[in-house]
From TrEMBL, chain A:
Keywords: Membrane, Transmembrane, Transmembrane helix
Listed transmembrane segments: 47-67
Naturally occurring in which organism (per UniProt): Chitinophaga chungangae
Record's protein name: Anti-sigma factor
Length: 182, 188
């Protein structure tokens, strides 16, 4: 029998089993669309977390500059105690809400979480300044700025978290109602 | 007889898979892979002769397939297109291994053609073993012709050599297989 005919007649018998599972496992990681989608999803989910620390550090910096400025402050200062009460209550509320989210889901690192606490280093510095100069308007304004920035940041974090979770799960988790504090 | 999932013709099913892949449906990529991986792996295995290398080449080829699905013209055969990508990857693997597909003189081709083919009983194992023992160049030509069903002209174009060289190499390869099978069946 001719070789050509023999192979033609026994074509199936020449076939080996398919490749091992490792080939698909490796290919899966290189799928053009999935990879793109994954990067976008990662960016959507995590960009703001990276931005938090930058914002916190920048806020502290802004406050320092603010304290050193001789310029008149445009912020209207209400009664100090009342003002403190107003902001700290809201900040604590937001922090509580944030703490209820599982750490793994939130994905904030310890440095950022520490910075987010109400009484962080910036707060202590302002508190010390204020104790030394109780009547100083600039320090009091800086303190208000500190509260406002912190509250806005916390609201932003929670907003982003809820927004992402709603998008991802298509669930009806309670949207965060932004409070107009300024 | 064909081992390919949809012959060389596109079917509504394969067309649908391609459309879904283009939309980024991960499951469609998997289905495409499942449909073709066995047949394509067998090409790689025959061409490289090594299981691990065959898997590597198959993987590289499928990366290309997935990346370039957009470029596949709607009236082109998906099977022929995938097969060509796989074969090209096998050939570049062989070229990296410094396999040269060399020209031979016309006279040698005439001589090789006179081989007597009225031979004794062959077995699949003996033929397989014989082909696997061929030098890379011969094995490539014989595989492309007998198993992948490319014409001498197509093989010449794939390997960048003349059609007559392909014919000569094929005849020589076949003669070598015949001898090896003879030895093998005598041993048994």
């Amino acid at each position: 029998m001719k070789l050509e005919d023999f192979i033609q007649q026994n074509r199936n018998a020449f076939e080996e089993e398919g490749p091992g599972p490792g080939v698909w496992a490796a290919l899966e990681k290189e799928l053009p669309v999935k990879q793109k989608a994954r990067v976008i999803s990662m960016m959507a989910r995590h960009w703001w977390k990276a931005a938090i620390l930058v914002a916190l550090v920048a806020n502290a910096g802004i406050l320092l500059i603010f304290l050193q400025t001789k310029k008149e402050v445009a912020v209207v200062i209400p009664e100090m105690q009342e003002m403190e009460q107003f902001y700290t209550t809201r900040i604590e509320e937001k922090l509580d809400e944030l703490k209820r989210i599982p750490a793994a889901e939130l994905g904030l690192d310890s440095t950022t979480s520490k910075e987010l606490e109400l009484r962080n280093e910036t707060y202590r510095m302002l508190e010390k300044e204020l104790a030394g100069n109780p009547g100083n308007e600039r320090i009091r304004s800086a303190m208000i700025r500190y509260y406002q920035m912190k509250l806005e940041l916390l609201e932003k974090i929670l907003d982003e978290h809820h927004k992402y979770n709603n998008d991802a799960n298509n669930s009806d988790s309670t949207p965060l109602i932004r409070k107009n504090v300024i | 007889m064909t081992l390919y999932p949809d012959n060389l013709e596109n079917t509504p099913v394969t067309n649908q898979i391609v459309v879904r892949c283009r939309k980024g449906d991960v499951r469609a990529y998997r289905e495409l892979y499942e449909a073709y991986s066995k047949a394509m792996y067998n090409i790689c295995l025959r061409m490289t002769g090594q299981q691990a290398d065959a898997e590597d080449v198959l993987q590289e080829a499928f990366v290309q397939v997935f990346k370039n699905l957009d470029k596949l013209a709607t009236d082109s055969s998906l099977t022929a297109w995938i097969k060509r990508i796989v074969v090209n990857h096998c050939l570049s693997y062989l070229r990296k291994k410094k396999v040269h597909f060399e020209e031979v003189g016309e006279g040698e081709y005439e001589e090789a053609e006179k081989v007597d083919e009225s031979e004794h009983a062959m077995t699949v194992t003996a033929v397989k073993d014989a082909i696997s023992q061929l030098p890379d160049g011969y094995r490539t030509v014989i595989n492309l012709y007998l198993f992948e069903e490319y014409s001498h002209r197509e093989i010449a174009s794939l390997l960048g050599i003349s059609e007559s060289t392909v014919k000569t190499q094929y005849m020589r390869a076949k003669e070598k297989v015949r001898q090896l099978v003879k030895i093998k069946t005598r041993e048994v």
